[in-house]
Amino acid sequence: VNAQRKDLVESEQTLLSTIEEINTTAQNQFLGTFGKIRENFITTFKGLFDEGDECDLRLEDGVDPLEARIEIVAKPRGKRPTSIDLLSGGEKTLTAIALLFAIYLVKPSPFCILDEVDAPLDDSNIDRFTRILRRFSDNTQFIVVTHNKRTMEAANALYGVTMEEEGVSKLVSVRFNETVPNG
After folding, report:
1. DSSP secondary structure string for all residues of 122-161
2. DSSP type of residue 83
3. Given CB 3.0 to 4.6 Å as the disulfide criterion, which of 30, 40, 63, 179 pairs with 68?
4. Phi/psi at 154 (nearest 5 deg)?
5. pTM, whole model, 2 decimals?
6. pLDDT (tens digit, 9 = 90+) per residue, 8-64?
């Protein structure tokens, strides 16, 4: 009986030690990745807004990083909102796009589907959005579901669905080629 008890106590200690090791490794990996995403977010945000605009990602203090809340701070165009909820729809969208691309930079993908992310953006913000798409399109193929004409104008190809006859959908595609200047 004592031998069995000793085995159980040793097993418990081994299990607790393993759990602690896994938690430490997970915390270190999370903090490393969070730091990279934070740096990318700041850079991407300033590329979408203006160089003097401020943003940050902050972890809740005094809490296990794996359990901590993440605060998104965004202060564009001289505004000093106390909450991201006080930003306009376009500013919130651009902030979310900056965060999306900050995460993307840590773990790039060969393709990305964006569904109506440009819907809340006005024309000047659409231009900012399409600029960031062009910047990242060297390494990633973007499929953007949109109804915005300005976003469509920035595309290399368009695919649409039309219904010439009731109940019969037809796929239409247009591919744009870059023109070479004469001279």
Report:
1. -HHHHHHHHHHHHHHTTT-EEEEE---HHHHHT-SEEEEE
2. S
3. 63
4. -85, -5
5. 0.80
6. 999 999 999 999 999 999 999 999 999 999 999 999 999 888 877 889 999 999 999
